[in-house]
Amino acid sequence: MSVAAKAPPKQDRARATYDRLLDVAGLLLAEEGIERISTNRIAAEAGLSPPALYRYFGDKYAVLEALGRRLMERQNAVLEAWIERHRSGGIAAMAGHIGELLAETAAVTRAEPGAVWTLRALHATPRLVHVRLESHRHVTDRLTDACAPHLPAIGRDMLWRRLRLAVELGFAAEEMTNEEDCVPADAVLADVTAMLGGLLLDLTPLPQAGGVGGGQGQSGGPPRCD
């Protein structure tokens, strides 16, 4: 069952309190793990009473969901800026700057309190899996929107599917750099950059006799998952 998350407050003072609670929760998550943190502990560390916390979050899973959504909103801001910089250059420009996108996303993730453990919580907790899935689908939608005008011969459904795989690979590589100490992080980044750049370039159809090629089912959009 999904967490019934409340929308973040809009007033500056309330938003500052909300973000302080999330910052404290992220740090506690990294120190204590999912099972040991509690709303009472988060409130105490933030200098607030439990009722003050419950104004914003129904339980600790709502806090974890908000942590995940805040991280992914900040990652999405990096994606939007990257698309704005490179979409006009076509597939070659986007393929050539995949490493930039991965590095900037990783930097945002490192700056977020407890981000590594937040990502682990999104994987490991059934009540939170939907947050990660929604985010990865959103990233795929935005990349499809950016690439589709440059790939008119490829059906949007196939393009979305290929990019969805690329998105999963990119996030998996980022998580690997946080967990795997047998391989240097810069080597992982270089490898996945080459893989994803090649994937994008492979989508560019070669000229074919008759003028049209590569279209594998011209559908109206990616699969509906809601």
TrEMBL record:
Gene3D superfamilies: Tetracycline Repressor, domain 2. GO terms for molecular function: DNA-binding transcription factor activity; transcription cis-regulatory region binding. SUPFAM superfamilies: Homeodomain-like. The keyword Transmembrane does not apply. Coiled coil: none annotated. Pfam families: TetR_N. Residues 15-75 form the HTH tetR-type domain. InterPro entries: DNA-bd_HTH_TetR-type_CS (IPR023772), Homeodomain-like_sf (IPR009057), HTH-type_TetR-like_transc_reg (IPR050109), HTH_TetR (IPR001647). Residues 38-57 bind DNA. Keywords: DNA-binding, Transcription, Transcription regulation. PANTHER family: HTH-TYPE TRANSCRIPTIONAL REGULATOR BETI (PTHR30055:SF234), HTH-TYPE TRANSCRIPTIONAL REGULATOR RUTR (PTHR30055). This is Transcriptional regulator, TetR family. It comes from Sphingopyxis terrae subsp. ummariensis. The lineage of its organism: Bacteria, Pseudomonadati, Pseudomonadota, Alphaproteobacteria, Sphingomonadales.
